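Researcher: Go.
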Amino acid sequence: MDKGLIPRRYAKALYEVGEQRNVNDSLYDTMQKLAAAFAANNSLAPTMANPFVPVADKVSLLETAAGFGKNGADATFADFTKLLADNRRLDIARDIALAFIDLYRTRHNIYKVAVASAAPLGDAEKKRLQDIIAAHIGKGTMEYDYTVDPSLIGGFTVTVNSERLDASVANRLKQIRLQLVD
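Model: Structure:
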């Protein structure tokens, strides 16, 4: 069975329960915190997969990582972690969180936009770039993530979901080098 299939099924079920309870917006925030915690702490995933760590400790770790007790989706999230514990699926909590985030973004027409620039962008530059991206995408909401990457030398790259625009000096130099080789 596809390893991604199980997390997607759990994410879809959680989304439907959240829809019934009207807490999907809070669940989205919770799942983003959970995914960020897994990304920031490399030992969290192996701990969740470790059979010698008690289930209660794993549940507590998940609740702490997700900011449990700080939003309206806590009862739903507690039910969710109990279901994962009962079904011995706590080790795929990260994958479920990522699948839930993708599902939520798809259903709410939210685009993840990653902008990498050689130097920090000013507010006017960010606004201009956001206007261009909004015109390109049309309807929808954008979540922006700005990073600085000096290896670009100059310019920027924009990634919207799986679509990428590379307007960097490093890319232009690479293109020139390939033309000279030909």
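Model: The mean pLDDT is 92.
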